[in-house]
Amino acid sequence: MRFPPSLLDEIRVRLPLSDVVGRRVSWDRRKTQPARGDFWACCPFHQEKTPSFHVDDRRGRYKCFGCGASGDHFRFLTDTEGLSFPEAVERLAEQTGVALPKPDPQAEKREQRRASLAEICEMAARFFQAEFATSGGAAARDYCARRGLKGDTLKEFRFGFAPNGRDALKRHLVSRGVDEADMIEAGLVIKPDDGRASYDRFRNRLIIPIQDDRGRVVAFGGRTLDPDGQPKYLNSPETPLFHKGALVFNAHRAREPAFKSGQAIVAEGYMDAIAIWQAGFPAVVATLGTAFTEEQIARIWKLSAEPIICFDGDVAGVSAAHRALDRIAPVLRSGYSFNFVFLPDGKDPDDLIRAGGAPAFREALSGAKPLIDVLWEREASVAQIDTPERKAALEKRFEDIVRQIKDERVRRRYQLDIRLRLSNLFFEQSRAARGFARGQGRGRGAGQFTEPGLKDRLERPDGPMFGTERTLCGLCLKYPGLFERHVERVSQLPLHDELHGRFRDELCRVATELDSAQVSDFFDKLDERFYRILSEALDMPEAVETRSAPAEAVRARFQDLIQRLPVLRYDPPEDFVEHLFLHFLDVLETSALERELEQEMASADEDFDDAAWDRIKALTQDLSRRREECARDEQELAERGRKLRETGQSVVFAKAG
């Protein structure tokens, strides 16, 4: 239905935006001025300590100055509750008493038809539930007991049983006045082409109703109870109510807990989703036996910006993950992706939960991998790169995949990240081929440099800024989007350590000067010292061990980024990471300012005049201001980091019930 602008404006006028948003946030009393229609709160779309989320009742708009989220009454409901735009309009119209226009006759007729079919599906669901409780449903109840399903779970998901007779459901619906044609259209009954009598689609099966986003029963899934029965799982066919590629199972239940926790889980099937829900993870949905569709991905992203997909750890599970990756990659967009979990020992979620309970499943979730890591492992783990042609072939495979990403910003981030990984992979392979791998170097081996004294410096780092510089180098690699956004500032940053300076220079070259060049053409022309930090930041222990010093000693001196910044283990929000990144830039620039002031003071001892005094005063004032800003930022970051650590894990789920 199309809504005229005048109707939307009337809803906005009748209902202050602060009333809609206020159900989700607590207003900051110091900054908020209700009399002026000016409201401030911590953003509901990302974690923050200082309120940066602003609602202007006069304009009917909200905006977060931290993450950039913005919109009006309707956008707020679609983003926080997963409603469609028409659903958001209908809800607010009902609350404000605004009459909605009648749909056109054809649309109204289609909606009435869908409502009629939904009523028939509801009748069928009640029939299946009643049969589940009879003596005929004993096998179905026994199966549920073996799966460890509890009574509350069976009731919540409305488990049922389809009798083994040819037309038990059909006869029941006929007795309720339902036409055979309607049963067929609802997908409940099959009419043979040869003219024989119609019969029930579901027979001798455990039945799980499939509900739409409004909670209406629109289809069914049936699990055979016959050991030799095929197919094992049977879903309703496509109907005016049910489009398998558009729905996700359990979305109507998962919406609220997903918003509260900020995370959602995606299972491969509805039985796994039900087991996960029962274990205390209510923000769970499942696909319906199909490959991911663009519409399903969009629906899941309404629940969470970075949901976790669970796959069995066996070959079939990995293959399913790779198919999902290929479906998801083209529609990735800024701020939205998927994380992948491969369950241990080939278990499915139900197996894992029954063996180790919720703690075992929660531990598995903590090992979720970003989509880009799964993509990298899929392509790089099986690649042969011992010749220039094979290196070029691997690079082309990545280019072909990344080229499909429609969002230009995300595509650019993937290109830079993969180019850096390829550079490191090709470099390590080249070293190994020359005999430098794992301490077997000949001649000018790994870790030996042409410039005297640099090796000693690497092994005995000193200076107050070494750790800060090394951490910044790691952040540039782990978060290439941040690096690109602030590349000009990074490129001009004065660094104490020569290794870090060389690394920074080469990284900027890769991102700018060599942007259009093939990695296989330039990887061996970069300064070898660039790869020492690159390998460390990319968490590649194999690469670390190829250096001349023992791996343990190298790790003791040059810890991985997450060891330097433990807060990264808790998956902090993007604005927190950027705050950290900018803080390190500020600290290093402040350190450079201190050195500049020291040099100016030393020069003034020999040649002091008014101009020198003015420079010293200006530097002193600037330095004082920068120190205060750094101290304030450090305190705020420490407080936010403490709150992140208190959660104890990166994914926090509300307990079911």
Observed structural traits:
53% helix, globular, disordered C terminus, DNA primase DNAg catalytic core, N-terminal domain, 657 residues, DNA Primase, Chain A, 29 helices, 4-stranded antiparallel beta sheet, 5 domains, Dna Topoisomerase Vi A Subunit, Chain: A, domain 2
Structure characterization notes:
The protein has 657 residues and is an alpha+beta fold. The protein has five domains: 5-96, DNA Primase, Chain A (Alpha-Beta Complex), CATH 3.90.580.10; 105-235, DNA primase, catalytic core, N-terminal domain (DNA primase DNAg catalytic core, N-terminal domain, Alpha-Beta Complex), CATH 3.90.980; 251-380, Dna Topoisomerase Vi A Subunit, Chain: A, domain 2, CATH 3.40.1360.10; 388-447 and 462-564, no CATH class; 574-646. The chain is 53% helix and 8% strand. It contains 29 helices and 15 strands. The strands form four sheets. A five-stranded mixed sheet has the order 12-11-13-14-15. Strands 1-2-3-4 form a four-stranded antiparallel sheet. Strands 5-8-9-10 form a four-stranded antiparallel sheet, covered by helices on one side. β13, α13 (315-328) and β14 form a beta-alpha-beta unit. α10 (251-261) packs across α12 (294-303) and α19 (466-478) crosses α24. The longest helix is centred in the last third of the chain and has 37 residues, at 610-646. 36% of the residues are buried. Mean pLDDT is 85; it is low at 437-460, 540-558 and 648-657.
